[in-house]
Design a protein that fits this description.
single chain; mainly alpha; two-stranded antiparallel ribbon; 3% strand; disordered N terminus; disordered C terminus
Length: 313
């Protein structure tokens, strides 16, 4: 087996190690800037509409680079370390394999994003009025976050997180030579990462996937559980935080700092700034009563283009 023949790899030179980490962090910083420019003013709260598939995929890939690159540097460093060891033995001279490895990782997350888009749009197409924010919407959003908290404590989460936190074991077990091998390894590492983080991403959808603030929080939680020395403490601490957040969204959403409540003046202002009607999907729009309060009634959600967006509970 290839993994069994990989000897102890030499340590990376300090300059190369620092350069790889700096490159990943610089790419992440650039991705944050691009995401901020692309998503500015698009947060209409839980269930914010995703736009066209092409628009969403473009935003999603940049989001994943921004959120994940700060936490995958240990895996990238170990992969590069093994590469150098094999090159010194004269067994492999593939150029650009590290970049291909990272590309494979992003490819897996792109697939996860496309699947998320399909599930989200399928749910929106059902136009279930009971899911409106004036009815069960807060409980559904809060329930998704509570479910993410529960997933933190499952054996599957533990297995996936262990793979992500143990780069040497993963690389030595999965190593394949050449760029094709690097791509395969990146895809497989991405799959373990999706298994580890999918529930946190579902929580992001429940809070508002176009919100830079919630995106930053989820990215921080991912980095904490992957990089903090105390795995159990990080894992359970995140579970407690998600539980409290989920209950707050379900029962007191107006008191959750940073949460844009669908139908609020903030959500309506965001939609109006983008040329949208006063509406909150799925199938809902705001209309005025005889009183100053706004009430909701069903109506088809507006179609979205690459620069439009709405929200749904």
């Amino acid at each position: 087996m290839e993994a069994a023949r990989v000897p102890r790899a030499p340590a990376l030179p300090d300059l190369l190690r620092a350069g790889l980490i700096a490159a990943l962090l610089a790419l992440a910083a650039l991705a944050w800037v691009l995401t901020g420019e692309r998503m500015a003013g698009m947060d209409a709260g839980p269930g914010t509409a995703l736009g066209t598939l092409g628009f969403f995929v473009g935003v999603w890939v940049v989001m994943m680079a921004a959120m994940m690159f700060p936490s995958i540097w240990p895996m990238v460093l170990v992969y590069r370390r093994i590469q150098i060891g094999k090159r010194e033995q004269g067994r492999e001279r593939t150029a650009g394999a590290t970049a291909v490895f990272v590309a494979g990782y992003l490819l897996t997350w792109t697939g996860a994003g496309v699947l998320s888009y399909a599930l989200f749009e399928a749910a929106r197409s059902l136009e279930i009025g009971a899911l409106s924010w004036s009815e069960a919407g807060p409980y559904v959003a809060g329930g998704v976050i509570v479910a993410a908290a529960a997933y933190q404590l499952t054996p599957l989460k533990d297995a996936c997180l262990t793979k992500c936190r143990d780069p040497f074991s993963f690389i030595l077990a999965e190593y394949r030579p050449g760029r094709a091998g690097a791509l395969r390894m990146g895809v497989r590492h991405g799959a373990w990462c999706v298994g580890c983080c999918w529930a946190l991403m579902a929580a992001l959808f429940a809070l508002g996937v176009m919100s830079l603030g919630w995106m930053a929080l989820i990215a921080a939680l991912i980095a904490t559980e992957k990089l903090l020395a105390w795995k159990a403490l990080a894992n359970r601490g995140i579970a407690v935080l998600l539980l409290a957040l989920g209950l707050a969204v379900a029962f007191a959403p107006e008191d959750v700092p940073g949460l844009t409540v669908p139908g609020s003046s903030e959500a309506m202002g965001a939609m109006e700034a983008m040329g949208m009607e006063k509406s909150t999907p799925p199938a809902m729009k705001m209309e005025e009563d005889a009183s100053p309060t706004m009430r909701m009634k069903e109506s088809p959600a507006p179609a979205m283009g690459a620069k439009e967006r709405g929200s749904s509970p």
